[in-house]
Design brief:
Potassium Channel Kv1.1, Chain A; two-stranded antiparallel ribbon; zinc ion binding; three-stranded mixed beta sheet; BTB POZ and TAZ domain-containing 1-like; binds zinc ion; 5 strands; mainly alpha; 2 domains; 7% strand; zinc-finger; CREB-binding Protein, Chain A
């Protein structure tokens, strides 16, 4: 058996005699103070309060299953609430497990944060499994996101092959997450496109009313003096295009029935306007109150 005093504990050790020994699977014994362990971890507290088998013996607390040095760092954290970057780098996974088992939320948070920061395609599957076991939802989600963004790289790792052979449930869980993530991306993209189209249409509607009511540049109502509206439109970026479309609609020989696509587009804009117009009595947009078979006559092009 190796006997080793944790150097971090010596300062505290001078104040009171250590009364517990932590025993690791590697046989390392770390002397410590029961009141400090008990105040940092409710699980250790209940182990300490359990009646001793032999009256005189110093209490032994086994912390098995992780490397000796990880246990040292764990005990050091219980004393000081600190551990170095280097220790985190080396023992982050073990410390997360210990913080979960011994209920030390402060350490668990730190581990979750540090492990998230150090995630890569090589360790993501191990960390994911641990996050699942240790009930660390933030870390679990971070791993899943990393997996869905880098699945091509992870798919070729030994870790993935091992997981496929040994944990088909987790494999399915990961694949489902990736599927849902892809669907979410598609849905967002579709929503954005729909929103863009809606904005374009709504601007076209405003612009149509503007041209048919106020007149703009070279197109306007019959009773309006075109000379007043000579300059290029400053209100709508689509105004020029829409004016060209209106001029075309007024002059086209082919028309909608003849299969003219530009006329068809203009016709759809007039129909859309008439379906949303809230003042058809005074409205000057052609076709607003009725749908004649012919092209409207009250809009003309002043060229
Ligand atoms: Zn305009
Ligand atoms: Zn046409
Ligand atoms: Zn109208």
């Amino acid at each position: 058996m190796v006997e080793k005093l944790n150097p971090q504990l010596s300062a505290v050790g001078e104040m009171a005699v250590p009364d517990v020994q932590i025993i690791t699977s590697g046989g390392l014994r770390i002397t410590a103070h029961s009141h400090i362990l008990a105040s940092a971890s409710p699980v250790l507290e209940s182990m300490i309060e359990r009646p001793k088998k032999r009256r005189s013996s110093q209490r032994n607390i086994p912390i098995p299953g992780v490397p000796c040095d990880a246990v040292s760092v764990f005990i050091q954290f219980l004393y000081s609430s600190k551990c170095s970057e280097e220790q985190m780098e080396k023992y982050g996974i073990h410390l997360l497990a210990l913080s979960h088992v011994y209920l030390v939320p402060q350490l668990k948070q730190r581990c979750t944060r540090e492990l998230s920061r150090r995630l890569n395609t090589e360790n993501v599957l191990d960390v994911l499994q641990l996050a699942r076991l240790c009930d660390a939802p933030d870390l679990y989600l971070k791993c899943m996101k990393m997996l869905s963004c880098n699945f091509k790289a992870v798919e070729h790792t030994e870790g993935w092959k091992f997981l496929q052979n040994h944990d088909p449930r987790l494999e399915l869980e990961i694949l489902q997450f990736i599927d849902e993530a892809e669907m979410r991306i598609k849905r967002t993209r579709r929503n954005r496109e729909e929103q863009k189209m809606y904005l374009q249409l709504s601007e076209a509607m405003d612009c149509l009313e503007h041209i048919c009511t106020e007149g703009c540049t070279s197109v306007g109502p019959c009773d309006m003096d075109p000379s007043k509206n000579k300059g290029p439109c400053s209100k709508f970026s689509t105004c020029h295009g829409l004016q060209l479309l209106i001029k075309h609609f007024a002059a086209c020989k082919k028309r909608v029935n003849g299969g003219c696509l530009r006329c068809k587009r203009m016709w759809q804009l007039f129909q859309l306007h008439s379906s949303i117009c809230d003042k058809p009595e005074q409205c000057r947009v052609p076709l607003c109150r009725y749908c004649p078979k012919e092209a409207p006559s009250n809009v003309r092009a002043h060229v």
